[in-house]
Each structure stands twice: as C-alpha cells, then as structure tokens.
Specification:
It is built from 17 helices and 12 strands. It is α/β, with parallel strands linked by helices. Among the domains are: about 130 residues, Rossmann fold (3-Layer(aba) Sandwich), CATH 3.40.50.10860; about 160 residues, NAD(P)-binding Rossmann-like Domain (Rossmann fold). The chain has a 7-stranded mixed beta sheet, with helices on both faces. The two termini are about 15 Å apart. Bound molecules: glutamic acid. Glutamic acid (GLU) binds next to strand 3 and helix 15.
C-alpha cells in the first residue's frame, strides 16, 4: 500500500534525519502547513507520496575546492550543488559565495527555488549551490582563481539541459564571467550553462535589474489590487546589493520615497527619500567600495547609523532585500506598531516564521520571496530561451515580459490565497499554486 504522509509524519521524518539543518527545516515547515490539505485531498498526490519526495533533494554534490591564491598559498574551501527537483525542467538556481554558506542554507534555498521557479510558468527545476569562500576584500585575481577552481569540479555536473546555475549573494557578472570562461575552456562548448552572463557572450538584457525591478512590479500589482499606488508611499529597504539597489531605483521611479538602505555594518537613512541619482551612483560604485553606504552618508546622501537595521524606521512598505532571517519577531512588532501595511521579500526567507505569522495574523500584506523575488530567475529562464535560439532580445521587450510574469504570479497567489473578506494570504497562495504545478508534473512522470 502507498505510504500515507501528513504534516506530523513528514515533518518528524525530516526532523529526525536533519535535526541540525535549521534553515532547511524552517523553509520546509513554512510550505508544509499550506500544502498538506491540498495533498490530503488528492489521491494521486498521496499514492505517489509527492510531499515527502518533494521535500528531499534528488541529488547533492559536495566537493573540496583546493586552490592556490595569487600569493602562492594554498586555500581550501567547501563547495556544493544541491539538485533539488527536475520534474519541471533543468535544475535552476544561483550560486552563493559567503562564509555562512553550509548544507542547511543551500538545501533551504534549493527547496524554495523549486517553488519559485514553478510560479514563473517557465520550464525550470530547482537547485542551488555555492561555497563558504568569503570574497570580501579579495583581489580580482584571487576571485578569478577561486572561480576557476570551483568550476573545475562543478563543470562535470552541469549543462544547458541538466543544471543551469546563476548568481546569488557575492556572485555577480564578474564571477559568472570567470566561471563561464572556465566551463567553456574545459568543455569546448558555448552553451547556456550559466545565466547572468555578460551581454557579449550570451547574456540577456534586464537580467541584472530583474530581481529588484520584478519586486516593484509585484508591489505595483498588489497596490492595484488594493486600489492604491506606490506614489507617495514611504518605503524602507534593507540591503545594498543588486536586489536592494534595483528595487530602490524602480520604487523611486514609481514615486515611492525610499528612506533606507543597509548592510551588515549599519544603516543609511534619508528622511526625505534617496534620489535616483544617489541610487544610480551606488549601483555604479558598489563593487569598488568597502562600504558604499557610509560613503554616501559622507557625501550628504543620508546619515549613517552604525549597527542598525531599518525596521525601526516609520514606513508604509518594508522590502527586506538582504539575507535570510534578517527580520525577526521584535522587528515585525515594531513595523506593525509604526503603521507598516505591506512587507514584500526581495531576499530569500528574510522574515522568520514568527515574523511571517505576525504579519498574516494582523492581516497586513505579506509576500514571500518565492513570489515577489521570482523576477530574477524568470529573466534567467528568458536568457536560457535566448541562448537556445542563439538570439538576443531587446531590453524593452524583456522588461515587458518581466512585468507580465510578475503580474501573473500575483494573480496565481490571489486565486489560491484569497480568504474571507478579501484578504489575500500570499504565502498560502504562492505555496499552493506552485505545489500543484510541481505535484502534477511529478505524478505525470511516475516514479
Ligand atoms: N539567485 C536568484 C534567486 O534566488 C536567481 C537564480 C537564477 O537566476 O537561477 O532566485
């Protein structure tokens, strides 16, 4: 007889096996609560034990990256690729280089990525990878040497129709360029094996901006649904990376007042709102500066608050765009007390389970990253399509496609997440809409 799974059974099964992997268990918990009722109501899903299979990665690749830095010293790092689920297409998801990277973090990210990718409507499975390598303060040459060594092992596990990595924290155009060069040299193949490439070698217009711009397109859809607009709203943004800066830029373009940016060292605050010139300057100069926000403060673009996060600043809308678990219970309480009515995640899982629950209980708009930050991977999907056809589409066409994809994800969340009195539980909507797609693809393909 088929195994019958339910929330307790599956969660305790995973808990026992992976009790030290807190981020992974957190991400699974967040999804299971919403999808178990759907699972229980579908005999095919149950017969194929879909939920348990969907929670476990299909394959995990671990390798040691031993490399010689530019001073001739040997360094040793850990590398992983988590190939979570390929029922909907090649594994797809970014690479993260950060000292906090470990298997639990990558398993949570790979798991989330499957649901996010399913929401885009494009044929992509889910995966994630990276290394505990810390690129902070490293020379360009060291970055290149590390990327080449990392790719020497990774290359045998990926391919344009197998697994297509991209960037994530600390992996941007420069790193993708080095990684791609090494793949091409070793395989003698020019193929769309990575996304986020340079425009000269198979990259796509709008890929760089897509996660941040997509977040604001989702916000526009939310505002439209609530008969309001971004214009005139006060917005706090955390982070100062690619996602945060492009979200801030697009928000300002739509008339929003973006009053903060932040990094691991503190907060840049500007009560009258950052200008688009200031944000563009940060985008251009961020990779050449140790602390771009402090420099902006020195240049009168705001004040620098050491060791502060943005959540105590009064706002209508909060956009956490830095990293996982950056916004906890206390922060959520402060935001709610200060009148914040919308929280849309630009990062992956920036709100803790408790913070999410508080937003939903208080019936403010809370949108999980798997829906609101899907613009990045969506544009990656469009880059894969362009590579397969050996063409390059215009920026304006791609920007419009991005807008449409985000508006469609919004619709999917609303149709599955609308509950009494018109309130939309976007988390539930996103989890259920993506689960149905994944589950149907898995059932159709048997075991
Ligand atoms: N790292 C991004 C994400 O979290 C993009 C992944 C991709 O483009 O494959 O969705």
């Amino acid at each position: 007889m088929a195994q019958q799974s339910n929330f307790d059974e599956i969660y305790s099964f995973l808990n026992e096996k992976f009790e030290n992997e807190s981020e992974y268990l957190q991400a699974v918990h967040e999804v299971l609560e919403d999808i178990i009722p759907i699972y229980n109501a579908n005999s095919d899903y149950k017969a194929f034990d879909i939920v348990r299979r969907l929670c476990l990665p299909e394959r995990i690749i671990y390798f040691t990256v031993s490399w010689m830095n530019s001073s001739g010293e040997i360094e040793v790092n850990q590398g992983w690729r988590v190939q979570h689920n390929s029922a909907m297409g090649p594994y797809k998801g970014g690479l993260r280089f950060h000292p906090t990277v470990n298997l639990s973090v990558l398993k949570f990210l790979a798991f989330e990525q499957c649901f996010k990718n399913a929401l885009t409507g494009l044929p992509m499975g889910g995966g994630k990878g990276g290394s505990d390598f810390d690129p902070k303060g490293r020379s360009d040459r060291d970055i290149m040497l590390f990327c080449q060594s990392f790719m020497r092992e990774l290359q045998r596990h990926i391919g344009a129709n197998t697994d297509v990595p991209a960037g994530d924290i600390n992996v941007g155009a420069r790193e993708i360029g080095y990684l791609y060069g090494e793949y091409r040299r070793l395989n003698n193949r020019f193929e769309g094996v990575l996304t986020g490439k340079g425009l000269e070698f198979g990259g796509s217009y709008v890929r760089t901006e897509a996660t941040g711009f997509g977040l604001i397109y989702f916000l526009q859809a939310v505002c439209q649904h609530q008969n309001t607009q971004i214009d005139g709203k006060t917005i706090v943004v955390s982070g100062a990376g690619n996602v945060a800066l492009h979200a801030a830029l697009k928000a300002v373009e739509k008339g929003g007042k973006v009053v903060t940016l932040s990094n691991s060292r503190g907060l840049l605050y500007n009560a009258s709102g950052l200008t688009d010139t200031a944000i563009k300057w940060a985008i251009e100069n961020r990779s050449s500066s140790g602390n771009i926000l402090e420099e902006m403060a020195k240049d009168d673009m705001g004040t620098w608050e050491e060791n502060k996060t943005p959540w105590h600043i009064e706002c209508d809308i909060a956009l956490p765009c830095a990293t996982q678990n950056e916004l906890g219970e206390k922060d959520a309480r402060t935001l709610l007390n200060n009148g914040c009515r919308m929280v849309l995640e630009g990062a992956n899982m920036p709100c803790t389970n408790k913070a999410q629950a508080m937003f939903i209980d208080e019936k403010i708009t809370y949108v999980p990253g798997k829906a609101s930050n899907a613009g990045g991977v969506a544009l990656s999907g469009l880059e894969m399509g362009q590579n397969a056809m050996f063409n390059q589409r215009e920026a304006s066409v791609l920007d419009e496609q991005l807008y449409t994809i985000m508006a469609n994800i919004h619709e999917r969340c609303v149709s599955e997440g609308k509950i009494e009195s018109g309130f939309v539980n976007y988390m539930k909507g996103a989890n259920i809409a993506s689960f149905r797609r994944l589950a149907d693809a898995m059932v159709a393909q048997g075991v």
